[in-house]
Amino acid sequence: MKRLALIAVAGVLLLMAAFGVGGYLGTRHSAEFPRVSAFTRGELSTPGPFVYCDPLFTECFDPQDSGALDVDPGNVVQLSVPDEIGKHLWRLLLVHEDGAIEAIFRPGERSAVTIATVDPNQGKLQRIVVQLPTIVLVDGEEAETFHAEWSVAANWPAG
């Protein structure tokens, strides 16, 4: 699934370069962007976006921000998204050892999610990804990608 995420990011960057849209990959301070919140075991992570574009890719930023949390099998992670994310269609991607689980939330449907750190079929949680999906045209065909992404790594104790 990591490969799929990398391919998606590469695809967004290639599209921007190919069409000349969003020809500006600038650096802006990540405090200017919405932040997600992930909480477990008394620890809070509030990363800004890894990549952030407007939905038409006319302006893109590449802050490469990400978060991390120490997790264990006995505690859940509480994820919350601000209104700037929750008022739009948003995707939650839970990357596990043996696969990924995806959930799509409609605008205003949900701003908080409880996440188990171990899935009986997919194994230990490795990463939580929040995306704002969008549709782009590639060779006259519609393709789904994302215009913004936030990421929180799940760090497991050694041993």
What is this structure, in a nutshell?
With 159 residues, the protein is mainly beta.
What does this structure look like?
It comes from Mycolicibacterium brumae. With 159 residues, the chain is mainly beta. It has one domain (2-154). The protein is built from two helices and 13 strands; from the N terminus they run H-E-E-E-E-E-E-E-H-E-E-E-E-E-E. Strands 1, 4, 5, 6, 8, 9, 11, 12 and 13 form a nine-stranded mixed β-sheet that branches. A hairpin with a 3-residue loop joins strand 11 and strand 12 (123-138). The chain starts with a helix and ends with a strand.
Structural class: mainly beta
Outline = globular
- Mean residue pLDDT: 85
Alpha carbon gyration radius: 16 Å
What's the main sheet like?
A: 9 strands, mixed
* Structure annotation, total helices: 2
- How many β-strand stretches? 13
Q: In what range is the share of β-strand residues?
A: over 45%
Q: Work out the helicity level.
A: 10-25%
| Order of secondary-structure elements | HEEEEEEEHEEEEEE
Distance between the termini: 24 Å
Structural domain count: 1
* Low-pLDDT segments, ≥5 res: 1-28
Organism: Mycolicibacterium brumae
Protein name: DUF2771 domain-containing protein
InterPro entries: DUF2771
